[in-house]
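Q: Sequence in, structure out?
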Amino acid sequence: MIRKEMTVAEVLRVNPQSTHLLMSYGICNCCGGNLTLEESAQSKGVDLQMLLDRLNKG
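A: Exactly. Output:
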């Protein structure tokens, strides 16, 4: 389960397949890997709940 408190780097460790999804929103490990998913989404103007829903879609 991906949570908003996880860093981008943690998300990618847990779910490496999420790379393309995150990059489609301008979120990448190289520039913001230490930011939380919440911080990254906010900085890119991405709806956090929508992003979490897509990341956790099983």
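The chain has a mean pLDDT of 93.
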